[in-house]
Amino acid sequence: MNQPPAGHAPAPVTARMENHGSHMVKVALQTGNDLFARAGSMVAYEGFIQYEANPPAVRQIARDWMTGEGAPLMKCSGDGLLYLADYGADVVVIDLGGDGISVNATNLLAFDAHLEWGVERVKGLAKFAGQGLWNTTISGHGWVALTSRGTPIVVDCGSGEDETYVDPDALVAWSPGLKVKGKRSFKAQSLIGRGSGEAFQLAFSGQGIVVVQPSEDSSDRLRIRG
Q1: What is d(CA 29, CA 166) in angstroms, rounded to the nearest whole number?
Q2: pTM for the complete prediction?
Q3: How many other β-carbons are positioned within 10 Å of the β-carbon of residue 152?
């Protein structure tokens, strides 16, 4: 068979980072424009691409990853096309365009190495979860690829006073400019979330977006580790 099956051949490159189907991202690598990606996420590549596991820049940031949720990263460099995936999860590609995003580390697949990034505590949650929730923040002009368990929804919080409530186990990412606070609901405990006891939600307000996956992560994101 000399021709690939219809609909499965690689498409021409049109952007630095783009979806190839819903479960894979294609990255156009060029010398000097490196990429950080989740270790083990490479499924294929074309050209000359090198990989460096746990590079110094990642080791420095990892010291701040106090919750143990930080996924190991590798640095990808060279010239060619790189294909990444994460066990068949849906992949969402975002061009930050100078803005920022706060990402659950378990949903972070890849991002441009020149972007500013770090690990920060989410303010407003300490009284609900001990030290609070830690997330990876990424900002600047460049590309980010996220994973989601199923096709996610992107909720525009607007700029009014109304709040948007999200189950923390379904949360993927949000605009870092949003205000976040925790809310407990005893009346809805049998309807929201899967844990026993009182229900817990995150309330977002302000101007920005929230990315929510249609499946609850099995891990307890608000449990303090370390």
Answers
A1: 36
A2: 0.81
A3: 21
